[in-house]
C-alpha cells in the first residue's frame, strides 16, 4: 500500500506549510520594529532632523555639530 503513505506525506507537507504561514503572519503583525515611532526620543528626532536639514543645505559644519550633539545627548540621556 504505497498510496496511503503518499497521502500521509502530502497531508504532513500541507500542515507544515500552514504552520509556517501562520508563524510568518504572527511575526509580521506582532514583531517589534527596531525603532518604534511612538517611543522615539523627541530630542534624538530633533537632532536628526536638524542634521538632515544641514546636509540638504550642504552645511557641513552644522551637520558635524549635530553629529556631536547627538553623541553627547546619547551619552547623557540614554
Ligand atoms: Zn534621545
Automatic annotation (TrEMBL):
This is Uncharacterized protein. Residues 18-32 have a biased composition (Polar residues). Residues 1-41, 56-78 are annotated as: Disordered. It comes from the Bacteria.
Amino acid at each position: 500500500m504505497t498510496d496511503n503513505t503518499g497521502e500521509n506525506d502530502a497531508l504532513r507537507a500541507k500542515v507544515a506549510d500552514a504552520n509556517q504561514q501562520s508563524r510568518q503572519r504572527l511575526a509580521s503583525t506582532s514583531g517589534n520594529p527596531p525603532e518604534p515611532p511612538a517611543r522615539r526620543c523627541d530630542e534624538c528626532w530633533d537632532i536628526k532632523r536638524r542634521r538632515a536639514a544641514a546636509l540638504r543645505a550642504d552645511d557641513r559644519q552644522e551637520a558635524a555639530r549635530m553629529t556631536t550633539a547627538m553623541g553627547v545627548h546619547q551619552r547623557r540621556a540614554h
